[in-house]
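seq/struct pair 1
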Amino acid sequence: MRNALLLRFLLLGLASLCGLAVGFGQVPTMINYQGRLIVDGVNFSGDGQFKFAFVNEDGSATYWSHDDSSVSGSEPSTHVVLPVSSGLYSVMLGDPNVKNSAGEGVQSISATVLGHSEVYLRIWVKAGTSGFQKLAPDRRIAAVAYALMADSVPDGSITTEKLAAGSVTEDKLAFSVSDSVVDGSITTAKLENSSVSSAKLATGSVTAEKLSVTTSELVSTASISTAMLAAGSVTSEKLAASSVTSAKLASASVTAEKLSVTASQLIPAGSITTEMLAPGAVTAEKLAVSTGGGNFLASLLAADSDLLNGGFVRVLEVPAKVWQSPVSSDVPSSRTLHSSVWTGSDMIVWGGNVGSALSNQGGVYNPETFEWNLLPISDVSPARNRQTTVWTGDRMIVWGGYIESGITQTGAIYAPEVPDANPPIGGWLSTSLESAPVARSEHTAVWTGSKMLIWGGKNSGGVLSSGSSYTAPSGPLVPGEEGSWSEISNTNAPEARHGHTAVWTGSKMLVWGGLDSAFSTLGTGAIYDPASNTWTSLPTAGAPSARTGHSAVWTGSKMIVFGGTNSEIPGSASNLLNDGAAFDPITGTWSAIDTVDAPSGRFNHGALWTGSEMLIVAGEALSGQVVNSGAAYNFAADTWRSLPDDSSASAGQSQLWTGGEILVFGANGLRTLDSAPAVYFYARF
């Protein structure tokens, strides 16, 4: 793990050096594109996630995609995050400074891409919490008007500066070069630096009689550097026997691309030992890369044995951040078992228990300004706890849970107010009761991008295996236009359960775990496809053990299940779980995640996906004990690291990921954490 970790930091240093090598005179292979994003009839504002590809007219062939992963017009694997303001966004396609979700620069656009007669831009977008949607139709790439002038070139406009080196070959001339050039007429004054490369010379063509000076007068010791040689230009026939001595080579001038053989062909593996190197022989100027300043390296390890054994000493630490409690006015009352959603710019908190009383109040927190604004009190949705909540992209939907009279089938929509809107936008509206699913709590809800899917849970009649799809109204909230419900198929649905998890993949809902009607934990699940209204069982081979109170996150390609308990009411530490597994819907397989350095066993904890890590926050242990520790799991590296303890953690709190920090709200108010790890710098003197 340490070697892999150190390698990542070295690669970052190398990427910086490679960036410096880009010539200022290069023509950027980039295309500027501007677009407009409207979600449910409203101009979207916030961070949007985009995927781009160039395809043919029917979309069956991919010419280019931003991460080079699209095939036959398929959706790329990664995405780029772009700011969207009032529906408008802009991107420089092909700009390596634009990073995708894997942290890599987007692919450049080669000239061959636009060599096709028809090229179309295909875009996928994810706004808010909705899944990725392919925009339609694909946009055709057209010529800029003045580019058509290339068909007409004024006489005399093509000068030497307009010609690329080597572009005018002998077959383009009306006379022979050999007939026009008198021996000895091409002097050094006629040649640009480095213009005469080996590719321009026939073998043995430069003889002594063709030179007005001797080679010893022209070539001084170490004067020929790598910059003066074209890759592969110095071949064996161009060199006299024993002519290449160390004195003729500048430091680090002979790199791999200058050799016609690889180092592995010349040097047997493991043949260069410490004894073969003179003391101090490997200096910075002998290396083709820098070590990040020559003598400094960074690591995530406080005692990196690889570096310490290599003669480095730890000299500096950039510590990890700690939990903060922002101070603000108009803070809503502290609470538990409530709802919270992230809008793309704000956290909305609503409902739950304030002390022992149910609440129908809440607030909106902006982490940029550290300000709260209280929500208008809902007159259409009774106070409740344990409800589900989704964010549609421009409004919040709460549904189900416990109200004063018991478990409910009611819900409500809240849309943030828009000042000076005409007609007015914002406020509360009830969800429709017509064809609504039966009352329930401890169910799950996911937002598909166009619908809310409710499934499972329990009520006074028992545990449920049913569910429904809700289409929310778009535009202003108008009484009487309260959306519509349709029942989800029950054929091949998983057995009834509550306390389970559900995630949305972008096209399907994955349900897993929970408690059955006998309150026994389940190790099964299923996939629901709303397009076909069908269920398919999840495989059990390699799946995590049966559990409830666990967490599940969607990484963009896999579902990760972690933690929980194997008993309805944990009676011992052995009932608490700190393991898990990842499910890949493409291959239909489970793979266990590493438990080395994993956090302690817990249930009813928070789990957040940052784009590269799963963050485990707080949770509960035995006898109602609150767990204040946390951890971050790097899926790509299959490694864990600790997060700072939160001494104010509480049971029944909510937690969100903003894209840069964790926001937690609960019985002890608001706390925030920048989850970036501590970084340690090492030096060798």
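seq/struct pair 2
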Amino acid sequence: MILEELSQLKKFIRLFFIRPGIAVSKVLDIYSNKFKHKKLKDRYLTNSSFQQNPFKSGQKLYNLNLFPDLINNISEIEQNKKNDNFEKLVLNLINHNFNLLGSDWKNVNKIVKNKIKNLSNELEQNRIIDLIDKDYRQIDWQIDFKSGYRWDVSTFYKDIKFGTKAGADIKIPWELGRMQQIQLLIIYYELINKDGIDKSVISSELKNQILDFIASNAPGFGVQWASTMDVAIRAVNLVLASSFLKKANIEFDNDFESYLISSIYEHGKHIIDNLEWSAGMRGNHYLANITGIILIASHLPITQEINSWLEFGINELMNEILYQFNEDGSNFEASTNYHLFSAEMVFSSIFVLLNLPKEKLTALNCGVKTYYNYALKKNKVFNGLWLFDAENKINFKSRIIDRLKKIYEFSSAIINEEGVIPQIGDNDSGQLLIPNYDLTFESHKPFGANHLSQLDLMKKVLELIDKLRDNSDLLQFSVPKEFKDFGLYILEKENVRLYIKCGSIGQMGKGGHSHNDQLSFELFIGKENVIVDPGTYCYTSEPQLRNEYRSTKMHNTLWFEGLEQNEWWNESADDLFWLKKDKAKAKKIEFSENQFAGEHFGYRKPHKREFTILKSNDIGRETLAENIPIISDSQIAECIKVKGVDTCELNKTKNISFHLAPGVLIINETETSFIIGVNNKKIEIISSAGKFRKEKYFYSPEYGLRIEAEKLVLISSENRIEWQIEIKSE
């Protein structure tokens, strides 16, 4: 008890390393939630937590289609289907073999029977189990099937602990519990031909998996109710399943349909009662809560309660678009992957709102002057960021539309033609929809197709909005190279692109999803990522590795042994999502088409870094330094050169890392240069200011997955270190 109170005191103290207003709000939230927790637990333990279906027979459900051009958007999956990959994937899912977050394929059938302390829940669970086909094997929804650790299904959801058992990762059961495999089963059902798996097998698996989850996870108990964000994502998949079953005219008995709709309603109630909102700061978790509420309320029958949820969801979505996305369109969490995850939730929600049926819109239009705010638990005046037009359709104010366009432009700037993005900040592989995702059959290019699908969804939403506006320039897009709010700068010549991080640590100074990557860069040549950010790999399961991957030395920048750009605590799982303060205070000095200069103050002396990118016509016969050979006339016409200069007067040995992507071949090496090969390009990394050392490291392209690769470390005692990268066609 004393240790727990001491831990709470430490958390209280560190709150004041971020903005004081945020700190006070968080303290109030902690103590308010503690009181609510006790009351809620007593209620859950004494009564059945299953909700009865609140809707009358015959009340209409409203189908949602979040895949606007499903068949046209799945060329990659179609290709996999032709070579049997997709069918093998679906067979794996039917047999309950899952490959999630680097787990490799594991069978997740249940061995231990659930034991629920609440007798009322047990009776209801047995009724649901009786509806499942007798030859169906139930899934173990509580297990981390990478480590084998299982959470207790009878534990009240607010008492679930994680980060306390070495190697156990709560994200594994959460990922499984999102039930995104439902989307893949639906896609396969729609594409199925006479040679494929029988359609009745797919529809039965959909029914059985849904009933299995409902029966095995009594509301409010076990790991699957501990994260409201994951509850919301699961709700989205249940809504998609319900819509699909209706649209495809697949008929099940009334009991199944009643339990499915009751469960969707239960998910909505749980989200409303457990919103991840804070007056001080909230992020992608709260955005997921709002997305879940909007989709649930858009699908369920019209009632006063459901209408109130929808009004609340729309108003909060408008607020969060402006709160969580910077004016340059980037996300405030300072992570490219979290940007796309959050953007996907925003645009999916808006796509649904723009396609609401007339009855929903009419009901909604009756009560938009004031609405009940479930986060603040009080009535609020309608915020005015959206309205109804003359045709009773939802229209958005220009501030919202402008921000949506900026989000699209930032997304376009970071996604290449293969769908690959630079990894800046954390990457937990989070996604809402997976219409283009084949569960890591090509793990070296994770989520590439899905990123392109996300971008396509954003464009479709902007096109829908544009149709509602007169004389609009909404579809006239630009792709900026400078994003001051995020701290991202892009230098580009021909097919060579450099992404440079210099700026905010995100989350208003908390830095929870930021890394020590100031002045780090990634190098793309054409479609290939050549010099990469090593990624994230894990969160609470292995704290030491979590901190290693966010450390300065794991980025392509200048580092010193024993020093970090920004520091963190090492006392609890929460510390893995904090930086003590933004000590580095990185800032841009200069940015133009060919040059970037920036500095940070994370060490005892400032670190300044300059980049220059020159194409063949600009290079001439200049040299980097006396000992670097002059480029010959024959090389000039085929060469692009990236020049780097690192300056720091700290009297310690200096290291500069260059993390090579897996598959990049080292052709030749000396103490002052390395020649590497990528496709038909020969790339030489050169410096006369120190010596290169080759090392192994593990590249993490997605959460939970590591691939061995090589990195170069330039070691120097100089205060000014010049280096260059020459890219030549072979």
